[in-house]
Every structure is written in structure tokens, then in C-alpha cells.
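> example.struct
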């Protein structure tokens, strides 16, 4: 889900296996956390996401990606939502995120609706987590009881965003390392990669595979030749930076077809196809299992989304409940936050990291 133009991929991220963010040991997350203080929070989030997805079906994938990009950088604390200020360097301008994140305005719309019902109660981190689960449901995927009670960070970390988010050209070793930093295992890697069952990517992230893979002047040999020609029609060399479906079969639906595509060399990104085409990889039997039984995939996706959503969470007296998702509370009162949505809505989907 966000890297940057391939013309500068030589600068792309090195996975730094330091500063591991294990699951928060003192987290007290509970699906019923808002039972008394904001009992309608789930239905409020669902209504906003459902209405937006009617006009923009891609938004469902974008919200899941936004959650992923949050959790992989100092934990699931809504740090990705923070804008630049005099004291905060926003993650939104990190190389994986710049001009690519979508859904920031949707999160703000949700926050506004939630604040009207339950002022000062629900964190932006929980809103983003709920929006991801609801996006899965609306996309035809699994639902789950979302553990709640996260609080919002007071900081962002652009450096970690550049380091921790896996790139679309990562090989399997690099992908595993990026996930291990977050305490996620190989099954989590394959299951969460299944989020590419829907959504779009920009052509710039597959041009190398189509025309000059690894400097060979030839296409990636792990690409099906018919699929290669289809992609070349959408993404001509030197042509416009069009959007292309992750899944050519069911592009707006969460299902097992993503894994079936990998089996026939139709993974869109190199990082997708690596899961099946890396010789002897332990990810291959997992792909086969998910492809043959959608319920098995859904169960694993649910478990991995919950596990990811628990990374480095802030609870108790840590962090805060932001009044506006783009600013810490001290900054919020100094700004006319009504202007924020218009600044965010120009973001364009498509530039993706491997998830």
C-alpha cells in the first residue's frame, strides 16, 4: 500500500530491524470499550464509510491501507493522520505516503460524526481501526469484533515511515524482515497481503516488471505472458501513470481470487508474486491453502488484522483523545480546522507499498 516513483527507487527503504514494536504489553483493549460511553460508535463509522463507498468503491481498500500504514509506524496510534506543524514532521510526506494516501478526509468526516454523538471519547486510532474492519465487511470480506481503547499519539515519525513500510519491489526475504519488525509472522504476511484482493496501483510501480525487470531489458519471468500484454496495454512504457486493478478478476471484492491469481502468475506487484514464485518458499503452501478455501483465508485475515491492530497501542494515560485527527489537541484549538478537509481531499490513490 505506498512507495514512490521508480525513478528514485535506489533510495527506497532499507528495513531496519531495530526498535521493534511488540504488541503492547499493558494494552487493555476490549471490543466493548465504548459500550457505555459511545454505544453507537460502530454504526456511526459504518454509515459514513458505507455512504462514501457508494460513490467511491476504491475507498474501502484505501482505508485498510491507511490503517496498515499507521500501524507499521510506531504502532496503531493514528500518527499517520497528523499534519505538519512547527513541532511535527508528518508521515504523510514520507516516501511511501507522499501524494498517495487516501481516506484522510473520510476519517475526519467520521470523527466529526462521532464527536457530535460522543464528544471527547473515541480516539482517531480506534476510528481508523473500526473503519478498516467495516471496509472489509462492505468489500465482501470477514467481520470481527474490533478490540478498542486505543489512544492517539502526540507525535509522528517520518523516518520510521520511510524505514518500516515494505516496498512493492521487495523480495520475500525483505518482506519477512519488514513484518518481523512488527512482530508479525509468515502467515500474517500472506494473510495481510490478501488485502491486495481489491484496490488499485499506479503503473509506475510495475513498469520495471513489464519492460526492464532487474535491468535485463526483459519482463519479469514470473508474469503470465497474457497478463503481461494486458498490463502493457494499460501501462505503456513512457505513457501516462494510469491506475491498474490489483485483481483483474474481482477488483472490488475481498475474496480468495488474489491467491488464485498468484498461482497462475497474475500477481500485480513483484512483492505479491514473490509469495508464490520464490523457489521453495514456505509461503507457497499458505497461498495454496488460502486459494483453495476462502473461509481459511478469511479466518487468517481476521486474526492477522486484529494482531496488526494491537501493535504498539497507547492505552490508559498514554497519548490523548484528539479533538481533530490531524492535530494534537494543543494545536487543534489554534487552527480553523474547517479548512483541513479541503487540503487533504487532493490526495490520489495508487502509489502503493507492498500491502
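> example.seq
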Amino acid at each position: 500500500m505506498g512507495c514512490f516513483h521508480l525513478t528514485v527507487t535506489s533510495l527506497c527503504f532499507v528495513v531496519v530491524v531495530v526498535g521493534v514494536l511488540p504488541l503492547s504489553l499493558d494494552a487493555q483493549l476490549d471490543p466493548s470499550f465504548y459500550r457505555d460511553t459511545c454505544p453507537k460508535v460502530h454504526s456511526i463509522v459504518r454509515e459514513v464509510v458505507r455512504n462514501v463507498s457508494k460513490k467511491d468503491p476504491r475507498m474501502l481498500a484505501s482505508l485498510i491501507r491507511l490503517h496498515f500504514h499507521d500501524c507499521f509506524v510506531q504502532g496503531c496510534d493514528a500518527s499517520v493522520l497528523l499534519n505538519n506543524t512547527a513541532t511535527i514532521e508528518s508521515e504523510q510526506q514520507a516516501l511511501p505516503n507522499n501524494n498517495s494516501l487516501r481516506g484522510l478526509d473520510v476519517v475526519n468526516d467520521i470523527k466529526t460524526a462521532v464527536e457530535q454523538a460522543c464528544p471527547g471519547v473515541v480516539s482517531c486510532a480506534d476510528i481508523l481501526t473500526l473503519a478498516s474492519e467495516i471496509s472489509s465487511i462492505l468489500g465482501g470480506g470477514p467481520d470481527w469484533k474490533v478490540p478498542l481503547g486505543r489512544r492517539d499519539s502526540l507525535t509522528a515519525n517520518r523516518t520510521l515511515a520511510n524505514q518500516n513500510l515494505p516496498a512493492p519491489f521487495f523480495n520475500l526475504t525483505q518482506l519477512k524482515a519488514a513484518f518481523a519488525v512488527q512482530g508479525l509472522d509468515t502467515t500474517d504476511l500472506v494473510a495481510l497481503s490478501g488485502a491486495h484482493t481489491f484496490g488499485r496501483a499506479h503503473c509506475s510501480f510495475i513498469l520495471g516488471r513489464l519492460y526492464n525487470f532487474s535491468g535485463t531489458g526483459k519482463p519479469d519471468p514470473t508474469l503470465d505472458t497474457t497478463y503481461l500484454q494486458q498490463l502493457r496495454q494499460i501501462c505503456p512504457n513512457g505513457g501516462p501513470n494510469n491506475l491498474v486493478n490489483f485483481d483483474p478478476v474481482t477488483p472490488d471484492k475481498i475474496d480468495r481470487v488474489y491467491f488464485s491469481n498468484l498461482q497462475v502468475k497474475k500477481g500485480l506487484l513483484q512483492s505479491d508474486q514473490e509469495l508464490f514464485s520464490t523457489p521453495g518458499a514456505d509461503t507457497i503452501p499458505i497461498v495454496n491453502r488460502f486459494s483453495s478455501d476462502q473461509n481459511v483465508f478469511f479466518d487468517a485475515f481476521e486474526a492477522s488484522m486484529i494482531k496488526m491492530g494491537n501493535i504498539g497501542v497507547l492505552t490508559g494515560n498514554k497519548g490523548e483523545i484528539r479533538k481533530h485527527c490531524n492535530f494534537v489537541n494543543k494545536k487543534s484549538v489554534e487552527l480553523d480546522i474547517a479548512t483541513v478537509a479541503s487540503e487533504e481531499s487532493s490526495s490520489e490513490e495508487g502509489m502503493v507499498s507492498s500491502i
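> remarks
The first helix runs from residue 41 to 55.
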